């Protein structure tokens, strides 16, 4: 019999992460220290453990809108170059400690200009943190490649500006563009000029869709906007009629998504917290994986979900009985879907992921 996969074992595996929000992954102690250092007095508590529990409790709301409310505090302490640099560097170090070998971390520059920083200054501080985080991880013997996605808030009107920012920094660590925020009432088609800007510059983008609003947002993201990937996309299951364990009929949208191999940035714990799915055991991840959609495993917001990539994988293992070969497939799915050039993706798949999984599989 094979050895059951435990958290300690899964932590040894190389991982690729596509959907992780910078302002959703701070260390609780860092939030407290930055609040004191820069005069932010809005925290519900300055006790580190109590604050960690508060974030976790508030996020488990069953609503995407309520889930997003605690971000006011993390964003509130990320308004200076020093704070942005520290948070970015620590994010890289934390991911590397969990054996993440490739990560795309996203953030919304427009949320970090309350103290007068320009969008470029915000982005430069974050990218500097990523670079130094990579160097620190390398020195610890845990090499990691980290790239950035810049996000526009879908309820605001700066998406074209943020897309242009992505193009300006495309050779400095930014590999793509995203829109995020509450889905209901803010369809992706409101931001067509931003997506056109990305396409005109042969640049890549993902869109938060199919988390809270269902199939219409997925349809717009694919058919109107031309998304390369879907942030979450979990509600594509509504276009699948399951007859039995081995028999399902796909609707036209689900078929298109699968046929075009459009990656789904699934975030199991977060999807439960926002009410997109009832529980991990009822998450459509297993169905979508079985039907050979391009599924990937992601953290979304490590602070709010009190999670890591290893913990997300463990929850799927416990719910669906996955083994090493399954986790390797999901990891390669993610690396294939990354926004870095093909040769860089292939180098990590063939030079890091496959060899290390070969040792784990035995």
Automatic annotation (TrEMBL):
Domain Adenosine deaminase residue range list: 14-354
Keyword Magnesium found: no
Keyword hit for Metal-binding: yes
One annotated Gene Ontology cellular component of this protein: cytosol
Residues that coordinate or bind Zn(2+): 19, 21, 208, 300
Superkingdom in the source lineage: Bacteria
Cofactor(s), by name: Zn(2+)
Swiss-Prot/TrEMBL site (Important for catalytic activity) positions: 232
Name of one Pfam family that matches: A_deaminase
Annotated residues for binding of substrate: 21, 23, 181
Gene Ontology biological process: adenosine catabolic process; hypoxanthine salvage; inosine biosynthetic process; nucleotide metabolic process; purine ribonucleoside monophosphate biosynthetic process
Family under the similarity heading: Belongs to the metallo-dependent hydrolases superfamily. Adenosine and AMP deaminases family. Adenosine deaminase subfamily.
PANTHER family: ADENOSINE DEAMINASE
Described purpose of this protein according to its UniProt entry: Catalyzes the hydrolytic deamination of adenosine and 2-deoxyadenosine.
Listed HAMAP family: A_deaminase
Identification of the protein by name: Adenosine deaminase
Source species of the chain: Mycolicibacterium frederiksbergense
Species lineage: Bacteria, Bacillati, Actinomycetota, Actinomycetes, Mycobacteriales
Originating gene: add
